[in-house]
Amino acid sequence: MLTRPDLPSRYRAIFVSDLHLGTQRAQTSAFLHFLQATDSEYLYIVGDLIDSWALQKNWYWSQDHNDVIQKLLRKARKGTRLIYIPGNHDENFRDFVGLRLGSIAVTEEAIHISAKGQRYLVLHGDKLDGVVCFAPWLAKLGDSAYEFSMSINVVLNRIRRTLRMPYWSLSAYLKNRVKKAVEFVSRYEEAVVREARLQHCAGVICGHIHTADDRQIEGVHYLNDGDWVESCTALVEHHDGRFEIIHWPTAAPIATPLKKKRLPAARIEIPVTAMLF
Ligand SMILES: [Mn+2]
Asked: Domain range holding 229?
């Protein structure tokens, strides 16, 4: 793993996911810098590019967010094969699965043939995540419910005290949650690896859990491209078929300012396109 990509910026394939555009957490400037500094034959967007769950609750869409969409479309216009795999946060884009527009394809999952001729299953991964799959309402409830339960804890312990019951340990509860999170991740990895094997693939490339990874799990090459919310990571395939996780610096000075070309009137519908993309 490199901390800074000093090597060629042109790759055979690039895999990115979980930018969560539409939230303030999206690291758009780092992502724009990354798009500007790299090029590839194939560019896979492995889900959760846009966070429509968040957009439905609270509309947040800045110029930066438009720039990301414009930059991606420009890459496609210039010949990069753009494969867009919607995730659970941009699940409404699954209505466009099967759509092909020039060098853009929207698909639920893809098989990427590496330069070494090996099959890699590319998918977002939420369908193999038990919580999202079997209890989507629970996943959407998410952090707010967790925070609510924490405030309940204070009240609960006050009651327990009056009833002369021992204090219920918050730290033990948290530790248990961490343990459960670790179990969740390993169950998730096992599930995607199993799916790859079912589809006769040598490896699997996914996102969703926001943790970049590159290792062998039971003979299957497990690759996760991470996210652009906290870690700013991408997965690249070099021309010789070697995969590498790139950690992009978040506060990198942009050497050449992004050219803001004026778009012809007909193209000013980008924000709408952004929603369709
Ligand atoms: Mn996801």
From this structure: 10-125+181-276
Count CA within 13 A, CB hemisphere, residue 240: 3
| Structural domain includes residue 247 | yes
| Number of Cβ within a 10 Å radius of residue 83 | 21
- pLDDT, tens digit, for every residue of 167-183? 776 656 766 777 777 78
pTM for the structure as a whole: 0.76
Residue type, 88: N
Residues 6+ apart with CB under 8 A from 261: none
Predicted pLDDT at 180: 79
H/E stretch holding 57 reads helix 52-57
* Cα 117 to ligand 1 centroid, rounded to whole Å: 28
Neighbours of 22 (CB within 10 A): 26
pLDDT at 136: 60
Domain count, the chain: 1
Query: Is 72 contained in some domain?
Result: yes
Q: For residue 257, is it within any domain?
A: yes
Centre of ligand 1 from the C-alpha of residue 124, in Å: 7
Strands 213-217 vs 220-224: parallel, antiparallel or unpaired: antiparallel
